[in-house]
Amino acid sequence: MLRKFKDSYYKMGQAVGEFPMVLLMAFLGAVTLMCFAELNFDAQPENFFFVKFTLVSVLGISLMFALKMLAQRIGKTVFLEICGVLLLIAFYFILPQKEDDFTEKFAFLLIPTFVLSHLFVSFAAFLSREKELNFWQYNKNLFINIFLTAIFTGVLTGGVELAVLAVDKLFDFNFNDKIYPQIFYLLSIFGSALIFVLFSQGGLRTLEKDGSYPEILKFFTQYILIPLLIIYAFILYFYAAKIVFKWELPRGWVSYLILAYSIVGIFALLIVHPLKQNSAKSWVRMFSRIFYFSLFPLLFLLFVAIFTRILEYGYTEPRYFVLLLAVWLGSVVLYFNLAQKPTIKYIPVSLFVFGIFSLTVPYLNTFSVAKRSQRAEFSKILIENNLLKDQKIDFGTKVTDTIADEVSNKFMYLMQRSDSAFVVNFLSEKDRRDIFKAKNHRQYGGLRAQFSDIIPAKNTVQTNRLEIFSQNKIRDISGYDYMFCPEDFDQKMTVNVGNDIFIFENISNVKDPTFKITLNNNKSWDLKPFLNGKIAKYKVRSGRVEQEEISAEKQLGDYTVKVYFNNIIAEKELVQRMYFNVGYILIAK
Length: 589
What we know:
Blueprint: H1 2-18, H2 20-38, H3 48-74, H4 77-94, H5 107-123, H6 132-171, H7 179-199, H8 203-207, H9 215-246, H10 254-271, H11 282-313, H12 317-338, H13 346-360, H14 366-384, E1 388-389, E2 392-393, E3 399-400, H15 401-416, H16 420-423, H17 429-435, H18 447-450, E4 454-455, E5 465-470, E6 482-484, E7 491-497, E8 500-507, E9 514-519, E10 523-526, H19 528-537, E11 543-547, E12 551-556, E13 559-572, E14 576-588
Parallel strand pairs: 3-4, 5-11
Antiparallel strand pairs: 1-2, 5-13, 6-14, 7-8, 8-9, 9-10, 12-13, 13-14
């Protein structure tokens, strides 16, 4: 037993010595999140550092692993690690300083960056002319190690959490509830990184070593993945035939299905790549030829679907990335159909290059293209609907609800991308004051409320929309000690009242909205039943329903809390969504 313990300790020491920067990044990310949990996840300006540092540290795990693989191929370990650290520091300062500025724009920066860092891992050590079979073995072993790491980490994390819970409940230790997320962060980030590098000991030499082809992969690909791909191909071809027969434009979501079919098909071909050299596995060569030829008509359908949306609504970051993926997919199809000796390294390397292009090339990157396009769309809507008077928006002009929503959405889109200098040129001084009175105006979608004469569009089904609004704008605050206006927070905020802590959670505009008030992480008030009750009371009605006042009151610990709502909106298309606007919250002790 002691010998096994010494062996495990020795292997762990070897892993730490071999991958110190990978484990350092994982440790920093885990500890930072644990500190953030200790602060009740309160993303105040002084605490937002923890969110940014965690994101950068977690990004550093894959980046440092890729650089380690490259260093094992070419040397220069210290130089490459210094470059990696400098890159992470630069990325930290690219992210916004305040949570208010952390808009969806940065999701379109973070997600592609994380994807690119993992793509770099897949080929960093194979930039020169190493054997293609070694490249395949390396990535196959990485894939297996990731799968095993997920299983080990899940079992370890769940086991430790249950053990702590058992000790807490059975022996009355009364642990702070924060211990559970802290354990999860430590084990899921640092623990998983340690387990992964233990599986990857020996580094590049072990990972690229030749090995027998796993039978489970062949079975999975031949009898599960490829049949599913054939079924999806038939569905997509029948849909294409329907479009031609009815001579109609394709629906927008078909582009996602085609991309999914294509990417999964390429993944399947990568899995069975070594079998192409085996004459007994003719089904692999046949599937390879058929698959890439089958993509030609689907690519045409894909581009038609994408440009239909772009020409109608302009570029946004998601549409830009879908178009970029379509162009990349086209390049893959042409490469494997025309190249004399195609290499599978083209797939990750070319996708990496396209990704770098989308984020870094001036004028042509996703953010520049989307912003210019939405500027043009914003101006076009105003001009085509005669909403400009002396080059300012005339909010007294009669306008349909769809146009009002579109103007408001594009306004907020540009505000969230720090383009206020452009949009404010269309607003009078009074309108600027009214719209920007909220502190967090980049999250504030108040432009629609400025229109005074909104009419239903002819094709709008108004029976699907109900708005209950409060007529009384004067609030009675007698008998209360504190008044809180939550218009300047999004989703979650912590407020101190004396020695007590109130947490306000506000998530609207989703299928399952939340409005909850919690006192000292102990007593809570869920207002969702109140909101649902209001909607249910008028479920047979549509349009606008006026009430003198929309309010709810509850005793919460030693406090009386009263919430005033300005309005509650329910919309039903494919699913029902609820919106609500909280006016004021009053608190009395």
